[in-house]
Design a protein that fits this description.
Layout lengths: L12 H16 L7 E7 L6 E3 L5 E9 L2 E2 L5 E2 L5 E3 L11 E7 L7 H16 L4 E5 L4 E4 L14 H7 L9
Antiparallel strand pairs: 1-7, 2-6, 3-4, 3-7, 5-6, 8-9
Helix pairs in contact: 1-2
């Protein structure tokens, strides 16, 4: 089986940008950008504080705990992803639903867009991604990660450092 058997028919810039975005999401443990509205289903903690996988919440549309609408009673941090409920959250698995808008507007995080572009360019280079070539003595040095694997969608250390301010460090 060839590599092309695994690639979608629309293997293009949008596909590569999506793959790069998924690498960033995997490293940061949330989508980071752009701002989106989605519904999260979380496990209950039974406590008063709940950690939501986000570092930039801009709106809470609806919050239920144990099937009860608690939207009006929830207090929340726009920067840390913490929601509090004085009466306490459900303690059941998958019993909390949160409809929220979160993530950064792309215009506010151009460094993330630059990382997506860089990763996409590396991935599109495939096996032709070389960082050094010589003609006289025939020398090529492939673009590889620390483990020697061909570079594609994995993040480089410098990219991880740039993403660290957006990375969730709890629950991962």
């Amino acid at each position: 089986m060839t590599l092309t058997a695994f690639l979608p028919a629309n293997y293009d810039a949008a596909f590569l940008a999506n793959a790069a975005s998924q690498s960033i999401r995997g490293y940061c443990h949330w989508h980071v950008a752009p701002s989106i509205t989605e519904t999260l289903v979380l496990d209950g903690t039974g406590g008063k504080a709940l950690l939501v996988p986000s570092m930039h919440i801009t709106a809470l549309t609806k919050v239920t705990s144990g099937g009860n609408d608690v939207t009006a009673r929830v207090k929340w941090s726009r920067r840390s992803g913490v929601l509090t409920l004085a009466s306490g959250w459900s303690h059941e698995l998958g019993d909390i639903e949160i409809e929220l808008t979160h993530g950064f507007d792309l215009a506010d995080v151009p460094n993330l867009a630059a990382i997506v572009v860089a990763i996409g360019q590396r991935a599109s280079a495939g096996n032709d991604g070389y960082v050094h070539e010589s003609a006289g003595g025939m020398s090529r040095r492939a673009l590889t990660g620390k483990d020697g694997a061909s570079a594609g969608v994995p993040l480089f250390e410098s990219e991880k450092e740039a993403l660290d301010p957006y990375r969730l460090t709890w629950g991962s």
